[in-house]
Amino acid sequence: MHWKTRSRITSWLLGIVTIGFLLFQWAPMFTMFTLSFAGENGGTTFPMNGISLHWYQKLWEADLFDDFKPPMLRSFLLALACSATTVVLSVCAAQAMRGRFRGNGLYFYLLLLGLMAPGILVGFGFAILTRLLGIEGTWNTTAYVVHVSWALPFGFLTMLAVFNRFDPRLEEAALTLGANRVTAFRRITWPIILPGVIGTALFGFSLSYDEYARTLFTAGSDGTLPLAVMAQLDRQLTPELYAIGTLTTAMSLTVIALCAIGFWLRARALRGRPS
Amino acid sequence: MPEGPAIAQLDLELRHIRKRYGDFVAVNDVSLQVGKGQFVCLLGPSGCGKTTTLRCVAGLEEPDAGDILIGGKEVTGEPPWKRDIAMMFQDFALFPHMTVARQVGFGLEMLKKPKAQIATRVAEVLKAFEIAHLAERRPSQLSGGQKQRVALARAMITEPRILLLDEPIGALDYSLRETVMLELKALQKRSGISFIWVTHDQNEAFSLGDHVVVMNHAKIEQQGAPDEVLSRPRTAFVAGFIQGNNVFEGRAGASRDGVLEVVTAAGLFRVPLLDLAAPAAGDALTFSVRAERLIENPGESILNRLTLRCVTVEYFGAFRRHVLEGAGGLIVKYDQFGALPPSMREGDEVTLGWAQDSGVLHRGPSA
Predict the structure, then answer these.
(1) Where is the ABC transporter domain (chain B) (predicted)?
(2) Both A132 and A84 in a single domain?
């Protein structure tokens, strides 16, 4: 057998591990999807009792969803703001790293510290700090700041990778053709790094949207969706919660699918029409 | 280089440019004058500072000292977009997200020309460069030769005073290069734009340039017309860098009637001083003799002679190169016109000599 040909046993082993991992990743979510379609008398565990859209209907009509509507809106707005801020800050931070400056190594590690810091500690610490300063914590002020500090390292790393693959000669070519630095960034750099920017925006959105630990102490009295869901879990567990989970997941998948289609269209446009 | 007021006729003047990166000196005291519509080649091995010099002219690097004048105007502190230049990069640096027509028109767009005017001019230029049929394509759909044309069209559309070219044909297939070189030379003559062409390939430099600047270790070793540099290398580096030179190291002996005796490990040779002052006896020096200037079995009148053993014979079609070895590890190259019948084989002992005026004495001590 040629050394490049993979043996059958290896193929099977690797295949089983891969599929096992994917199952492990998706099975809990899939359980929730399935149970959300339980019948009227269905519970939150297997075996399922009938199949219906009852819990979705109830969700739409019942008061319970009214309780969820404001946190959902807050979470959505917060995630959007966090996403936008993360994009701006991480593009700037990665641009700064391109230029190299004194202490850029320290700057790099300090920015990445946000990845290592435990969420509970960050949230709690920030809450103590704001109390000391006499600032009332709310979802759109203190929680927003903490969320950005959480999403920024991810966005920063993404943008670093994007700029690593970016050819600075393209900018230089634009400069020698009469473009000033702002124009060169707008016309050359930005369109080329755009896919990475969209990736960063998605990171910023999803990291903020489902953040619990950091929000818990910083959101004040008006909570976000994860806080509301946890509170409801403490009170009463019904398939309605599963329905909410399924809906939000579906929403995220839709957004990701839209982005993927956008990337695909763009790549096709760059390749141009076949000649 | 003469100091003083800017000469308006010059397209480019560099006055004592210096550039260093930390402890590394990239450009050391480079001065250069480029007349109107000249084709200048910066030639040298990689890392010699030729590209950094070019980037200083473009404004992409800021020299630590010295002045840069373009068209007689001081531009040392000006950014690239305010300089009357365009640049062509080795890998062409085409914008991947723009069609050919769009990026060729980019320079005009930056000049805020009206849209209709840009479209007309782009169509004209694309036609002139024979790439009109590629107008709607993107760089990923172009071949190397097509990319090169697009990059050239993009750079030349605004008719800058100077076009800077950083190894512009280095990325092309070897078979394409000769054609492209001829085209570029013709284009340069026709347009009257000064070309500053950076290369490590001496064939490019000497066949294209009106003026060749040979650089080494951040400094200009020699500059002048191609035939002047080829026939009269001024330093051991230049002689060694140009193919087909035999460089000899030795010490100065007596000089008489403009002829210097040089004592080398391989014997005593007579070299004309030409315009150089006679060095003091015992000074280390170098001189060179072109490989095709050597004479096989020289007559009695030839005083410079060597006995050598032929090591290798290489046949290149146009000429036949013999590598010979002498006493003390001396290596000598001897080129013979390719159409002549081979006259020596590997292992043969031969005597080679050269006419006195074939020797070229270098200035300065041996490197």
Answers:
(1) 12-242
(2) yes
